Amino acid sequence: AKEAGKNKIIIFNEPMNEAVTQRAQIEKHLRTALERNEFELLYQPQLDMTTNQISGFEALIRWKNPELGYVPPNRFISVAEDTHLIIPIGKWVLRNSILFLKHLHDRGYTDLTMSVNISMLQLLQDDFVDMVTETLELVKINPKYIELEITESILMESYETIAKKLRHLKAIGVRIALDDFGTGYSSLHYLKHLPISTLKIDKIFIDNISVDKRNKCLTHLMVKIGKAMGLCVVAEGVETQEQMEYLKKHKCNKIQGYLFCKPLPYNEIIKKLERKP
Ligand code: C2E
Ligand code: CA
Ligand code: CA
Ligand code: CA
């Protein structure tokens, strides 16, 4: 801390100042990122463990700025939320990921699905359901191939409003996935009250499956709950053969993770699909 006058002390220390400046930099460049075409989408395949085939993808945003370089989503999504820039960015993500899926369907890969991360702020917009409906109509894709991933933290706020919108989306035919399952405060409450189709077990549980008996039990339990409720259960962040085998043994429906495939740009996804019989 620096001294500023006799009794005053500036409470910002250097690292904090740095963080504030960094956020300001991110915000400044984020404002023009869409128009300057600085975003890209990567797609991470999900492996269906019963068919041993790719069943679909999760769209993951990437941002490369000429001045800041590559900025990971964990660094800029919160800034995008604070500034409400997530609204146009989220719309861009939805539209482009669905367009890519449509392209794959037109190429003959007609059963593939697309999962899209949705921010709380998007869900809270009055026109969110309309925006989704319009996008689906514009692209002419059956809603059943689209899954919106929401995180538990999203749901803490305006619970009833959000529940209503999710029911509306479900009625349209869109699937809802509960992302990062098990990391929030009221996972089971959400599971009971919201129209969830898919449960995504968070990576923190998968990570130590082989060494941590508790994680093993919790993972097993989450798969069991999900399956008993008729949901599709997806395990995230699967990195080892051992993790995959454990999940397979307990009949987890799908896995996503570096072991099977990392997130790839669209041209590499097409190559990957074409290589497969
Ligand atoms: P998430 O939705 O939980 O996405 C999973 C993250 O885990 C992704 O990080 C993915 O690249 C990474 N991942 C997948 N498999 C593995 C693995 O085997 N090992 C490890 N270590 N990591 C793995 P990413 O792409 O950096 O995204 C981070 C977070 O940013 C996402 O977490 C999501 O919350 C958010 N995000 C990404 N794209 C979007 C978007 O388009 N919209 C919104 N609202 N949020 C997004
Ligand atoms: Ca996700
Ligand atoms: Ca997740
Ligand atoms: Ca996450």
Automatic annotation (TrEMBL):
Please list the residue ranges annotated as the EAL domain.
23-277
Recite the UniProt keywords alphabetically.
Membrane, Transmembrane, Transmembrane helix
Q: What is this protein called?
A: EAL domain-containing protein
Q: Which residues of the full protein are shown?
A: 403 to 679 of 679
